[in-house]
Amino acid sequence: MSLLLLVAGHETTTNLISLGTYRLLMTPSALNELRLKPALWANAVEECLRFESPVQLDGRMAQQDVPIGDQIIPKGASVTVVLAQANRDPEIFPNPDMFDIHRHPNMHLAFGRGVHMCLGATLAKMEATIAFSELFRYSLELHGDPIFNPNVLLRGLKSLPLIVKGSQ
């Protein structure tokens, strides 16, 4: 269990920080506002989690027959939950394809929910908030295209070429 927590917490948090850095650089108006209003960093982390979900899929087993529309998922059936798609549900998130650091409430599923909530969610959010607030004290620019990992389960970057222009 300790090894699972270490590995899961390391890769997903790394992906959150790299994907969030990329998204913030692609949304300069949000980044400029965050530099002026550092109190918004925690909210920005939540939106990074929703918009660039590090964990794309999760699996569950139906504990009982579950009706969805005109179909029934039978008790015991394996179900794949596409968290990234759920985080873009227009019935839950107005303008779901817009990155909005003011989104509230932001009930994303990046860390699961209820009994399936990630044990390290609070730590990962704290790490990302600190990383972003420190990283973006510098003026960064993309220096080429990012390279995404070809992993269906975990979304992340192999590289994010940046140039540091100076401190803010």
Description:
The chain is an alpha+beta fold and 168 residues long. The protein has one domain: Cytochrome p450 (Orthogonal Bundle), CATH 1.10.630.10. The protein is built from 5 helices and 8 strands, in the order H-H-H-E-E-E-E-H-H-E-E-E-E. It has helices spanning 2-25, 28-36, 41-51, 83-86, 121-135, and strands at 57-61, 66-68, 71-73, 78-82, 138-142, 147-148, 157-159, 162-167. The strands form 4 sheets. The chain has a two-stranded antiparallel ribbon with strand order 1-4. A two-stranded antiparallel sheet has the order 2-3. The chain is globular. 23% of the residues are buried. The model has no long low-confidence stretch (mean pLDDT 93).
CATH homologous superfamily identity: Cytochrome P450
Find the CATH topology.
Cytochrome p450
Structural class by SSE content? alpha+beta
Radius of gyration: 17 Å
Q: How much beta, percentage-wise?
A: 15-25%
Helical content stands at 25-40%
| Largest sheet: spatial strand order | 1-4
The count of strands amounts to 8
Which CATH first-tier class would you pick?
A: Mainly Alpha
Distance between the termini: 41 Å
Determine the number of helices (DSSP H or I, runs of at least 4 residues).
5
List the secondary-structure elements in sequence, H or E: HHHEEEEHHEEEE
Summarize the main sheet. Answer: 2 strands, antiparallel
> Which consecutive residue ranges, at least 5 long each, have pLDDT under 50?
none
Q: What count of domains describes the coordinates? A: 1
CATH architecture: Orthogonal Bundle
